[in-house]
Write the structure tokens for this entry.
Amino acid sequence: MEPAAKTARGVWRSVVQTGALWGAGAIFLALVGLVEAVSHRQIVAGVLSLAYALLLLAGLGAGTQVSRRWAGRAAWQRIVGGALAGALVGVAVELLVVIGRSVNLRIMLINASPPLYEILSFGRGLGGVPLMMLAQTGAGAIGAAAPLLPPWFRRPVIAGLSMAFVIGLFQDLVQLMLQSGVRAGLRSLLFTGDGLALHGAVLLFVFAAGLSVLRARYRAPAGRWAVGLPPQRRRVLRWITMGAVVAAILILPWVAGLFISQVLVLVGLYTLMGLGLNLEVGFAGLLDLGFVAFFAIGAYTVGLLTTTGPLAVAHLAWWTVVPIATVVSLIAGVFFGLPILRIRGDYLAIATLGFGEIIRLLVLSDFLRPWLGGSQGVLGIPRPVLVGLEFRGPQQLIYLTVVASALVAFVAARLRDSRLGRAWMAVREDEDVAEALGINTVNVKLLAYGIGGAFAGVSGAIFAVMLGSVFPHSFNVLISINVLALIIVGGMGSLPGVMVGSLALVGLPELLREFSDFRFLVYGAVLIVMMQLRPEGLWPTAVARRELHDGAQAPAVPGHAVELAGAKEGDG
Amino acid sequence: MRMKRLQILMTLTVALLLAVGAYFVPAAPAATMGPVTDSVGVVKVNKGQPVTIAYWLVVAGPDASLGVDSRRGIEIAVDDKKTVLGFPIKLIGEDSGCNAEGGVTAATKLASNQDIVAAIGSSCSSEAVPGAPILWKAGIVTVSPSNTAPKLTAADRGADFDGYLRTAHNDLVQGRVAAEFARKSLKVGKAATIHDGSPYAEGLANAFADNFKKLGGTITSQEAIAPTDTDMRPVLTKIAAGKPDLVYYPIFIAAGGFVTRQAKEVAGLQNVKLMSADGTFSPDFYKAGGDAVVGMYHTSPDLTEAALGTRYTAFLAKHKKKYGENVLSAFHAHAYDAAMIIFSAIEKVGKKDGAGNLYIGRKALRDALFATKGFRGVTGTITCNKSGDCADPKIAVYISNSSDPAKWNPGEEPKKIYP
Amino acid sequence: MAATLVAARIQRNWLQRLSVIDIFLWAFRLAVLAAVVVGTFRTLYSGRYAGEVWLDFVVFGVSQGSVYALIALGYTMVYGILRMINFAHGDIFMCGAYTAYYAAGALYRAGVFNRQPLLSLAIILAVAVTASTSVALLVERVAYRPLRRAPRLVPLISAIGASFFIEYAVRGLYGSGFQAYPEFEVFKGKWNVFGIGILRTQAVVIVATLILMGLLYLFVMRTKTGTAMRAVSEDMEVAALMGINVDRIIVITFAVGAAAAGAAGVLYALVFKQVHFFMGFYPGIKAFTAAVLGGIGNIPGAMLGGLFLGLFESVGPILVLDGLGIVAPYQLKDVIAFTMLVMVLIFRPSGILGERLAGKKA
């Protein structure tokens, strides 16, 4: 509890602060254009649009925050406080409307347009102003009341609401999955033309709330039951689970449909790259911001060796080219690692970033156009064929990606537990000490670059056939950044983390394509929030988790063991 | 022990995966629905529901202004048209990122939505190459407002591209007009080109250079920059060493503005003629280039009131009112036309049943689009040929006499001088 | 510990230490050197470019380098203290330049712009600095401060997130088109300095950069706050024990770095005029490169790195690549810049002036 909240003035200050903060957030959403852009988007058709849902979330959040801060006070005080904070949010939003209607803000802020003000005042002109304040006050009170409810009641309600909200938000995708047969029936049950039907929302709410109640009741006993089984039975259980997972993967593309399969292929490609970069950054502690280079090398190798177009070097089958592409990327990795061997830490970041840009510029350049195609790219890459079956679309390619990811993950796991893996970790923790212990740091580092590059090369090889063409514009620095971000978000050094990370940072943005203009805005915000809530990543390694928890008390002195990668620079 | 089991598991998984991979869905068969039979498929729009049109354009990321500009053109077309055959129009869309993988993902998402009648896109040629076949496999015909790469509508483009048309100008057409104007009207002997590494600019610069040489001119140098470059003086100084009479830079507004301003500051280029293409044909370019734009040439579709009446100027007024800013790039009008020819094709092939539901045959729609002839659009008179080029081949050359964006009124300012 | 290791290394004689790696590195250096020499020779021998043209190239390089240097300052100062790459710095630069555009536009419409150029410039500068600084402080508070004790890469990812967020927030607020600054009549045309014609805007940028750089250097070296900054950079723990308010110093560092970025934004706008929501990204990366080139954490290093980078980009393509017969050499200017960066780092692994810092940190 904040010390300031103890005095009477402090109490008011905290209400005002909270309300102003959330109000500013709501105004920001309005001015950045998000509110207007999602105003036609119905969460529950005819009842709640996404725009109002977002706006009211601000009031709700303010209320909850005040109520949380005042834990220990009387319930009525907390609710009144929350309502006041909510009212403040409303005042802030309506202030924008009043100012905007009298002064033309649009010279500077292009979204401050009359339609926005209409939305912010429920389409009733100035008459809507008190209405919005009232609504926000209500939202604040509800938000403040939420923490007061007993958990057995609160949890199912929140689960139900979230379910309805998420399905409403992703209704586009859900509807895509439900286009034929029995599924089409489900679609017409839940949705109307514009969005979730009211009865559909209620159904979903009941469903999720029910599940939540069941989970609360049976989760602990089920866990106890599984633990209590004899080892043999438990193994069988594990096999059954594994079998179920494999079966799920097998039928997934046919259930989920074309688009989800495509997204999963992309997730798979990023997982492959992430596994490679994880080797460099997570295992060996070599920061690399130019990882896209190897991806490009793999893709271009496949392109040039298999294309039917005029740039062809050879007309090999894809299956023969994959090993070649892997080896070429491996060599490229070693070759690129050589000049930067002595460079450490953050210097490495920019040197590698430069390498990625160099490769992109070279494949784009007019100078190499006769051989690499310049900006017009390499076209006409045939799809791989296996015993007469063509991998022609995402629903087939997904198997290729899954198999490749599984193989590469397996290799990575074996490498991690090998002598080489331990050497990498030694180098990561302290290069000088590792050298003193007799580790050949040069070879070890070069192998990290080489093998990491090879993994990305495999990814590039699949990428090339997925597109059937290769263009230089696909290989910009944002890909390197994204791959780095996904292994950190997943949990550095953790293999399942890579997959979780790419699901979160590649899969989710793809699924949110509909809100395309705001995709990167949300992406940025998610990165910031994620790093504060789970700095160790979504699926961290045991070591990282432990270290981070020790590290929370220890000071951040440079060179402390908490610093996982690139902790040091300089010699001696 | 554990190792071995893992291996067995892996082998089993691989085998199983491959076995299931063998299951390949057949393509959508010919369908009959209501009053319509079509060899590719039929879209049914229930009474009261909207006709769905989708865009796949780059509306996020660094190239966003290209796609947002086009999308606004479509949105204005939807506002203008309001309904087709009495059905409201619903516009949905995807960001395609201006790269191949974005194009594939966007196209795949559209392809899996059976409600979509037709699509508009892509923004960049690199998206269309892998993306357009995916859409056509799902029976969705797409019209691009801004792909200019010649190969997309080449005679040998293949059956994959049967569902692809464009209202943008093929580079070959525009590059040829620019070269002819430079050689025949300006009587220029030596020219240099600059492109920015985009397929659009590279294609145009090459088409210009080829035609210019064919007409007996000399190309002193062909340079390239990055679209994010800001300091063009070094590259311009290099160009100046070849002493050209004209510099042709068919790039986009931002980089084009830098080139225009800085050319005047480079020794040896003060009196060189500057020429750009439709990528910079916008009032915003006047802001970007400042006073240096006075006296420079542009090739662009003939948008004068003499050719089109007030269609284009009226469009610009609507745009300003709706979005509070000037047009962002060059392809809003092409997008408007793309949407309009789609609506008109739907009106030709859509059939209603007794209950008032609408049926649209996909192959019939495609054929109707390819049969578009003499459609009076905002970019000229639109007639599609059999490989999908629809743009009016009338390319005009303009000269700028002012640098005030408020005076922008194609035909008068910049003034049309050719043909 | 480290000292004994170094001693052990020295004791091995050079022949024993000569490995395949060293041979490769030497071959790499020689190859780059040979390409540079051959290219240069052939370019100069062809005589296609007259003497004064080369001077122009140098001036272009120096003015572009000055802008890089000013942005690099913020990178370097934050890095010196927090050992953290502030990836969003380029976008903070953009915020300043973009927001100040509206001030410039308003002044222009009011007719003050060209009647009172100095006053206008001061107002624009103030707006830019205020905008940049407030965004930077907000970012520090929200995205960096909670992570001060987190592993090293965590703040980097947070910074990347902040970079995206700022870019697209500005895009949403100000629009996805671009704006162009009006032109100062006073700064049109050229000045003649020692017989070299320099564009006035470029001269202003170079001089302003030098002044700002000098002021900043004095601030860090001579004032009490500057001393505290250096102390924090040296050892955060001990500095705190000495009664220095570490949080405050960090905030000041961010503010000063951002103010420099804001000023850089205005100077950039003087030369290039256009502002756009994505304009910070590449200059940001370049400035970071400049900071590393000069030795990250070192203020004169940032200046030197920026100038070198500007020169490589401006002179390199024509001097080296043109002679090698490579078409459209300016497309590859970043290839030159980054190759030179790697070359410098091979010879001096911690940048041109970065030695002191690197030695201290190990």
Remarks:
- The longest helix of chain C spans residues 51-82.
- The longest strand of chain C covers residues 190-193.
- The beta strands of chain C are 178-180, 190-193, 196-199, 274-276.
- Residues 356-362 of chain C have pLDDT under 50 and may be disordered.
